[in-house]
Sequence to fold (399 residues):
Amino acid sequence: MYKPVKLTDSVYYVGVNDRRTHLFENMWPIDRGVAYNSYVIDDEKVALIDSVEIGQVEKYLKKIKAIIGDKEIDYLIVNHMEPDHGGSIDIIKKMYPNIQIVGNKKTLPMLEGYFGISDNTIEVKEGDTLSLGKHTLNFYMVPMVHWPETMVTFESTEKILFSADAFGTFGTLDGGIFDDEFEFDYYRDEMRRYYSNIVGKYGSPVQKALSKLGGLEINMIASTHGPIWRNYISEVISMYDRWSKYETEEGVVVAYASMYGNTEEMAEAVARELAENGIKHIRVHDVSKSHASFIISDIFKYKGLILASPTYCNELHPNMESLTTKLVHMGVQNHYLGILGSFSWAGAAVKKLTAVGEELNWELVGESVEEKHALKADKYEACLALGKAMADRLKADRS
Fold:
């Protein structure tokens, strides 16, 4: 029933698409869905690389059967235990009771904790290998990319890196499964949104992983989400390198909260002045409408950030507070910050946004602007001055 998707003559894609789930991890909108990827190596010994989310198990098992028929699966390689990849382990174990489950010392306690499985397991360490016959699996630990047990598996005969969540992206695979079967730009932004929100806190571990894997000759990267990379390998590795160093492009994200339009008016004045001073990339987000994942993705892309909030019960507007809490939690680095605030009887927004910038060690640009009641001429001019100061600071980096 299923036409097998081959990476090579004996390595197969058996992933599934999920177009029904609205929120990934019950947090991040996935209007374009998500793919859960798994792979089969059909050799003298059969290895299954990762599994899929439990809701997709029926069609997943049909794909496996279409490749191996009534053969046994000898090994299940668990690169990552998160339930969108490990969710089917218990069912696979019941279907193939003699299967040996391969993981590291941090994987195996999770395996028992989630499923009560403690038998027929193989613990692997950094640099260990496993022969399947013609194929040899090599194991590398990449902790905190993005769970502590995460590892990657490199098949050294075909030179395929099974990379767990690394190099993954939101978005289903709509016919094209390999990166030369569709337009790469279709996935670029969703790859950054995936990285910034799921992996973004762990820039240092990602750098360590990239250094560790840098000496491998890689013909394909087979992630657990999104396309199989074989044509754009150097580009996706470069993207991860830049993002994990918090390197950015020239541009400004203007993120504002506004109850009755006064703070929005301030934000728009700044945005217009940025454009008039030669900044081409400006992304304006109402934090009460734009989901935080899209705002954070843009912040990972652009150097400049304007945060604008009214004072709400002596605090930040709750949606702005939520965004800034996420940014602090992620430890987002290397940004220029401009601040706007408004209030009706007691101002606190500017003070609290300044504290966010100080905690993150961002460079404060220009004079912060705080207006009482509606925007008036003098504070309007101050907003323009802040926009120009941000533009000038960004342009100073061009040389």
About this structure: The domain at 249-392 is CATH 3.40.50.360 (Rossmann fold). The CA atoms of residues 95 and 185 lie 40 Å apart.
